[in-house]
Every structure is written in C-alpha cells, then in structure tokens.
Amino acid sequence: MRTCQEVELMNLKMDEYNEIVRRLGREPNDVELGVFSVMWSEHCSYKSSKALLKTLPVTGPAVLQGPGENAGIVDLGDGQNALAFKIESHNHPSYVEPYQGAATGVGGILRDVFTMGARPVAILDSLHFGSPDHNQKNAYLFERVVAGISWYGNCMGVPTVGGETKFDDIYSRNPLVNAFTAGLVKKDRIRRGLASGAGNPVIYVGSKTGRDGIHGATFASDRLDENSDNDRPAVQVGDPFSEKLLLEACLELFETDYVIGIQDMGAAGLTSSSTEMASRSGTGIRMNLDLVPQREENMSAYEIMLSESQERMLLVARKGTEDAVRVIFEKWDLNFAVIGEVIADEELIVMHHGQVAARFPLTALEPPVYQRPVTPRPARIFSLPPESLKSDPLVQFSEMIALSPCLRYAGQVFHKYDFQVGTDTVIGPGADAAVLRIKGSSSAVALNLESQARLCYINPFEGIRAVIAEAVINQACVNAYPLGLTNCLNFGSPEKPEVMWEFSEVIRGMRESCLFFDIPVTGGNVSFYNDFGDSSIHPTPVIGLAGLVQGSIRQAEIVPASIFLAGELCENLAGSVYLRHFHQTPGGDFSIDLEAVKRLQALVLDCHKNGFIHAAHDISDGGIIYSLLEWIALCNGLGIEINDQQAFSSTGVVFSELPGRVLLLVKNEATARFISSAKDQGLPVRRIGSIVKNPVFKINGIDLDLENLLGHYFKASPELRCFTVK
Amino acid sequence: MKPRAAILLFPGSNCERDAFYGLEQTGFDPCFLWHKESRLDPEIRLVIVPGGFSFGDYLRCGSIASHSPVMSAVRKFADNGGLVLGICNGFQILTESGLLPGALLINRTLNFRCHDVFLRCDNTSTPFTSAIGGPLKMPIAHYEGNYQVSGEELADMERNSQIAFRYCGPDGVYAEGCNPNGSTADIAGIFNKQKNVLGMMPHPERAVENLLGSTAGREIFASLLSSLEQSAAGGMN
Hints:
heterodimer, A: seven-stranded mixed β-sheet, seven-stranded mixed β-sheet, B: two-stranded antiparallel sheet, globular
C-alpha cells in the first residue's frame, strides 16, 4: 500500500487513490498510477467544473460539433464550409518558460483544430500580464510570450488576426496566455477522435517522444509558487517546423478515406489520446511502447506514456491502408509507426519490453465529478469617495493615457505577428473583431476574444453578462452575428469555496446570456489553480465568438461625417481603467440590461444593412473618450470635434466602460433615416460631434492637444507610427 | 493561353497557396513544384520561390532550401534567361543559392514586423517592372529582411541598375523611418545582372485585391504577363 505522501506526489488525494484501488480491485502499478494521475488531473478531467459546465446550452441549428471533441464546429451556411474553433490556456508553462510555454500553447490549439480535419486560418490570443512599466519581470514575460506566439504562428503560416492584451498587477505572478484558433473544413470532411473497429491499426505520427513535458497536465493543475522555476522540465518544447509538416501531411491524409479517427497528443500525450479515443468509441486499445519512436534512450514505460513532447498525433486507420498512410508521412519526413490495434474489449493494454506495463478496464478511468463547496456571496462592493470624481475629466484623460499601459496602441504586439498570411484577413488586429473572407464562398467569418476580469471580480454573474454583451456588440460593429462561443475559464483553486462561488456565478451568467442571445457553447477549456501561494487571480473568463458576416463585408471608413452615440448614457465606472488608475479600486456594483444590448445589436446590424454608416466602434477600455481617440489615431490629418455638454462634463460618463453604447459614424445623406430607424427600435441616439478635416481633438471648445495624446498612444511602438498611420 | 508559373514547394513554405491564388487572379496558370523534383517542365515560363520558413529556417534562412534538387533546376532555368521571382523567404533562398548577390540579416529592430510599406521602383525597364507607375503600397512580414551587401558590390549593382525597389514614404520619396529593417541603401528588392531574377522582401501576392487593401502587386504580375506575351509573340523561349 502506498503512503499518503507517495500518492500526493502524484497530485492525487488519498480518497481518490482508494477509489482507484477499489475500481481495479488491486493496487495500481506505477505506470497505471501515472495514467490515473494525469487523467484525473483537473486539467484533463474537469472534475471540479463538469457538473456546472453541463448546464451550458450546447446545441443550435448551426452546431455540427459541440463540446467533448478536440474543437467545436459550426456550419457557415454556404452549403459547403464549416468552422472549427477552440480556445485553450497555457498559463503555467508561460510563467515558468514564457517563450516555449506560449509557443507550445499555440501549437497545441492549432493541432486541436486540424485534428478535426480543418485547415487553421486564424489565431487570436488573450493575454493578461502585470504592468510592464517599472517591473522587469512583467516586461520580460510579456515580451517573451509575444515572441513565442509570433515564432510559432508565423512559422506555421497561420495569421494571428486579433485578440486582447490586458495589464493588471494581479497577474504579475500568474500571467494568462490563452490561444484561440479557427480553421475551415468542408462539412463532409470533418474528422473526429474515434477508435472504432477491432483490429484496426493504431498509428503514431509526427515527432519522436522525449522526456519533455512529463506530467505537464498535472503541473498545469497545481499552484505556482517560489519554486516553480524548477518545473521547467514540465514545460514542453515546440518545433513549429515539424508541426507545419504534420499539418500538411494530415490534411493530405484527410483527402483519403483511410482514417477512422485522429487525436492530438496534447496534455497527457499518448495516455489521453489513446484512452479518450477508445472511450468515445466504446472500444479498447492494445499498444506496444517498444514501437513508439523515441528521441532518448532507455525511456521507461512511465515516461513514454506521460511525455508531452509536441507535434505528435495518434490515429486509427482502416486495416490494410497502413502502407498508403506511411507513404504520406514519409513524403513529409515525419515519423510513422504502427504501435498497436483497436480491441473489442473496453480495456487499455500497454506492453513494454515484452511485459504488460499497464492493463485495466477503461471504464475504471472515468474521472470523479465533484460538487465543490461554495461560499455565499462575499462582500466585494467597493464604494468610492464621491469628492474624487469632481475634477475635470479631460485633464485626467491626458494623465491616464500617459500612464496606463492598457491604453496604448497594441501594435507593439500585433505587428510582430504575421496577420496577413493566407490572404484572407479583411479586418485585422485592432478592430472590434477580425474578419476573414473565405475564398470561393460568399460567407465571411468574424472572430473576437473578450474578457473583463475586474467586472467579474466585483460581480461574476453580471461580469460575464457584460463580457458576452460586449463581444456581441463587437461582432455587430463589423456586421456579424455570432454562431458559437468557446470559453477559456481562468480561475484560482477550485478547492477554495470563494473561487467556486465565482466559477458557479460565471457559469450561471454565461448560461443565461447564451440562452438570451441564442449562442451555443461549442467547447472550451477550464484553467483552475491560477494561484501564486495563497492569492488567486481575478476570475477571468475569456470568451471567443465565431460569427457570420451578414451580407457583404464592410470595412470601417473614417471620413468627415457626424458622430452619433447609440445607447443610454452611463455613469457607472465599475471595472474601468479610470478607477484602477486614479483610485486603485475595481468599483461598485453594476448590472447589464441585455434587452437594451440586443436592441443596440439590431440597430448596428441594421445600419450596416441599410448603408447608413461609414463605421461603428464599441466603447470599452478607457471609455468613450478613448474610443474616439482610437478612431482618429491611425488617420493622418483627421480630427474630432465634440459638442455635447451633457455627455462630456461628467467623469462618470466620459470614463464608463460598461457595454451598451456604440459610436456610429453616420453618412450625411442617411442621417434622417438613421434617426428614425433608431426611434423605431426604441433606442436613444444623440449626435455628439463630427470627424473633421484637421488634426485636432476638441471637446466642447477645449483643445486636448492631439499630438501629445498620440505621443502617449504610440509610446510603446513609436517606430511603427509612420507605417500604420494612413 | 495563360503562361504556366511554377511555385516551388519546400517543407516549411507557407506563402505558396497565397502565391497560387495571386497568380490565378492576375492571369497565370500556376502549379506547385516539390523540392525533390530535379527538372522543370518545358512549358514553365515563370518560377516563384515563395515565402515561409523553408526547413524551419533552422540554419541561416534559405540555406538548406538552396541545396535542394529543385534549385539546381531553377539555376539552369535562370541561366537560360527564365524568369524567377523570389518573395521574402524566397529572396533569402535566391541569395543563399548565389542567384542574387548580398545577404539578408535580422531586422535592425530585432523584431518580426508585419505591416504595409511603400516602395519606389528604381528600374522600370525590366520584365518585372515595366507596368509600374507610381509608388507601391505592399505588405511586409519578416524577421530577416535587412539586406546587406559590400559598398563595392552596391556601387556595381547601382551601375547595372540592379536595384529594383527601395523603401520610401507614401509619395515615393525617402522619408524618415520608412526603412523597416535597416537594409543597405533602403533596398527592398534587387535584380541579378541580366534582370531575369528578382528577389524582394515585400509580398506582391498579398496585394492583388482592393478588399485586402492594395492592388500594387498586380503591377508586377502585369509586367511579367506582358513580357511573357511579347516573348511568346516574338517566338523566343
């Protein structure tokens, strides 16, 4: 019998170990214990989140594949194309080894998408770091993560078309690196992770197996601490060149009918891919580890089963097609090995050096499901000293933009990514959502990632409603309507009742808003244990939307015309950059009126359809004043004049970031029709000013010194200014 | 009949499909050619060496690809006056294989950079550039685009009108900061002595549609098309 200590070293609890013994009717050997340990890790098993995740709406007319596969898939409605998409976290590895950690995060999510039969067409990233100003470690993590993503994505030839970069010191010791990929697949060519048909060969393709990333899934399910730097060996090492070959070889293979099923060897490597494929199909797998291509000598069965070496795939082919499959992988100079076969009994049999290294029924591997304790709502209402809001918002804006890394041109990040390769990127990074056309189809897709961690900290239920509301409005700004949602749920330890309260509230809010907007959840990822020592990050659910452009693609056109604000004026500063900067507080409570957001969505889509507008832009980080600046920052020679005392005299209105308001640049000839259309839809709109032909930023007669503001805006990447300003 | 254009395909190439689409859009009949092939079909009129990370760029960029069987065939093709266009990593492969002089180093900013640049064409009397009017707006996406060549060689190249493109401002004249990578003499693209081989860092194949923001690449493909039509009409190879 193993001791409690031995069991905990495997990151299992003693009662979990006892359950394994009960199910097997004996003590597991070391290899078996390793298999159980990774498959029951939070990262692989979703044991703390599964019960709640099951409440999310996952079906809809466009859904071709919901949760449970390597990626979700939605129908693009053109009769032939579908979109596979998913988001995943790579937080812990990116803290310990930012370059490789972030790179392999991108590599993993790319494989999840192309294993479905899809050619990846876009990457987006949601990054959260501590402020890089005055903190070298944060600056280092930020720079190396961006470099790692850039290296992997660029080499793969998949454009990185958007995402978000947010700074808050809560992430200093636990940065978040979430990577999203979307890929195109013909509807009749979708592949899945299945292992059916006893006697069919189990084939290993891709890079060789080494001793890297062993127990990576377990490491991902543990807290970070002062000694985490010693966990470098748990971080995988990426090779985008091998992955590019693997991608091309797999896509060539998918043109044939040789494949029964395929799955990426991602977290928990050979263990998870083999057991999950068999479990989905109600079969078993017998494998001989001696046949696994190995990079290092004398690897044990334990190491081979738990290695997370990158750029590997496990596939099950039709018996008799082995040689034809081999030809394809050898053309691309990739390893190919038949390592086993599908068996009828639901059993895993692992042979090594002529001995049985592991053997047990797959049903025993079904992970436990926990209902973790939840606290009642903790007190998180942060009241503000009322006198602090009295000073002049226009003066404060200059100071805020000078000092806040959140309010800088993000070109420093996205111009390091090839966002154009593939020649489909119609609207690239920096817009409310990215838009990709599909060659040979009338459909175009819109993709965006959103999060609002400070709002989710104040009130996780309303917070996630705000995130989804904003994402929906962002889609509308590029004339798109969402088809599906993928989520990356970054939280602290689920063993803390307060974290479980945050999680359950986020799921409740997500469920409600997805039902309200009729957006199915097609998959995602839960990342718990984002803790450093005893402190947890803010609850940071990141959502990715895949939407369909309605009618023709419309690019924003910033030209002299009238600027309208659509939506109610809002004075609530909850979660704003303003409060964080000037008052070091997330702010007070708030609520989101989803009905009003839906009306706004309809109005913006209507404006696109009827050709009323040149451009639409969501109001978000930095408030209305920052959204206005963003409009002219990249337009040489244009300026903005605002004449609206009510909307620009109060600090609350100027800096509120809550979703529900959009800036619209209305065509002169369409103004009357636009106003009457808004009236019909019961939505307030007001003309607040106009884009003008000289480079000024004037609000109610006060000149804000545009050049000075732009100096701060481009502070992180001044060398890019002459290339990006038109 | 549309002229046949072969796009070389190395492990790690990743702009080959963009080149295929761009050539289709501009009047060519494109096909792919695997790096292990050692001969070019006689009907091929243009060879494109596309961008990407051939062989992972694990040695010097383009170095391994320059030794592949297909490059020997391309060298022969070029020696006989065949038209060869290397884009980005393709430019690196051409300098590594000796078809073009000089070398491409890491950008002066030490960053990968992806954005539009403006190009001035220095020699419009070549098969690649005859249809070029004013300055060209075209995207770049590279980490190693810093073109370097010795002063002596540069003087030689300038005498021979081998400078194809230089980075410039939107109006076609040099502007402060317009060179994104620190290249010698703001060079973005060069010809060989005979002007039948062009290597360039910017991506003309990404600039053939208004939808994506520029059609400047069409001016290069239109030049090639008219040059190939003329040589076909003249009965030349």
